[in-house]
Amino acid sequence: MRTQLLVIAKWPAPGRVKTRLCPPATPAQAARIAAAALDDTLATVWATPADRRTLVAAGEPHPDHPVPHAARFPVVAQHGEGLAERLAHAFTDTARPDTAAVLVGMDTPQLRVAQLTAASTALRTADAVLGPAADGGWWLLGLRRPADAVALLGVPMSTSDTGAATLAALRRRGLRVALLETLRDVDTAADARAVAPHCGRGRFAAAVDSQLRHVAEVPA
Asked: How far apart, in whole angstroms, are the C-alpha atoms of residue 54 and residue 215?
């Protein structure tokens, strides 16, 4: 089975990415952390065996927040009203004959090659594979047939029930779904500090240290 790996992301720019890091971070600090998260994610995707790798991006690259690994990827622009439509289009716009698709975002820089490989392997026997996120969303969705991404339309995104609603929508379509391990995604400064120790020597851990080291957490 052929596999394409997709990364859906926003080009890092102050005020457009990781806004929930602000406060305590400034918009510029949040953009630096986002650029590092995306770059580490792309590095892991590049290192993972696949037939094709594609970045599905929104916005425009920002000169102050470079993402060096992006130069290795063909880039497809996001489109659609709302996240559910943009995710569905990410699958269908990049679809290739007889090729499964595995999509991740830029919120889990702790992502490992083994986890992406496990997702691709699961699609040999399952129709879909879903990686739940600790906040109730999901960090990975793989589809043996990218056209099945229409199941996402109407699923409420960015809520504590998004993962469960996505799983239900896939099953209503008659798909056999395999589940991966749960990961914590990075939305807040607390998330960033918790995830950074699991990112090895990548850019994200260094960015969190340099941008948040002397910044106090905002009380909940």
From this structure: 35
Q: Which of 74, 73, 72, 55 is nearest to 11 (CA)?
A: 55
Q: Does the CA dihedral 39-45-48-53 come out positive or negative? A: negative
Inter-residue contact 7 to 102 (CB < 8 Å): no
**Number of Cα atoms under 13 Å in the Cβ half of residue 211:** 26
Q: Using a cut of 0.85, tell me whether the model's pTM lies above it.
A: yes
pLDDT digits (tens, 9 = 90+) for 28-67: 999 999 999 999 999 999 999 999 999 999 999 999 999 9
- The count of C-alpha atoms lying within 13 angstroms of the C-alpha of 80, restricted to the half-sphere facing its C-beta, is 21
Segments in 109-202 forming alpha helices (H): 113-122, 162-172, 189-195
